[in-house]
Amino acid sequence: MALRACLSRAVLVSPRRLAHTDVKFPDFDGYRRESTLDASKPARETEDERRALPVALYYGVGGMMSLFGAKEVVQTMVSYKAMAADQRALASIEIKMDDIPEGQTKTFEWRGKPVFVKHRTAAEIKREKTVNVGELRHAQHDDERVQKDEWSVVIGVCTHLGCVPIANAGDFGGYYCPCHGSHYDGSGRIRKGPAPLNLHVPAYSFKDNIIVIGSS
């Protein structure tokens, strides 16, 4: 009898679904812009107003960053102009031409880099000026790289991976980089090996019997 009563109760009990209709959803209207309170209004009609703040922030922050960058540039320029004479001298070096005999190359340090100053002979000048520029990897005539035929001034840093070449060496009588086998001629032009570019020519000028490197 007890089992039958339990079964009858199980049959009579039906599942019920609770709707939770008494739960109130939070109202976020207080956090919305007035232009978006009307849910029936298309978003396109309020697009300009909604984008006004982000656009203002974008240009405002961008303008501040531009002003900050300009300030740094101006301060750097002013500080350079205000340097003492001995500090400015470090930006350029003077080399006496009489100290370099004809046919020799001497190395000097300028701004932490080696600089090769080559006093070329008449034979070297003729050899470099008769090179077929069309066959060069980095096509430059010798006249584009020297101010006076007798003098060649180049930065002694290989354009491949930054090693320091050996002066008066290599297959073309100029410079040879022992790191990976780049050969440069007496004008500092790449002629053989992996280097992609000629040796860089720094700004320099002649003053009486002196070469001033770092001044044009």
TrEMBL record:
The keyword Iron-sulfur applies. This is Cytochrome b-c1 complex subunit Rieske, mitochondrial. It comes from Steinernema glaseri. Belongs to the Rieske iron-sulfur protein family. GO terms for cellular component: mitochondrial inner membrane. It is found in: Membrane; Mitochondrion inner membrane. Its main location: membrane. It is a single-pass membrane protein. It catalyses: a quinol + 2 Fe(III)-[cytochrome c](out) = a quinone + 2 Fe(II)-[cytochrome c](out) + 2 H(+)(out). Its cofactor is [2Fe-2S] cluster. Binds 1 [2Fe-2S] cluster per subunit. GO terms for molecular function: 2 iron, 2 sulfur cluster binding; metal ion binding; quinol-cytochrome-c reductase activity. Keywords: 2Fe-2S, Disulfide bond, Electron transport, Iron, Iron-sulfur, Membrane, Metal-binding, Mitochondrion, Respiratory chain, Transmembrane, Transmembrane helix, Transport. Its EC number is 7.1.1.8.
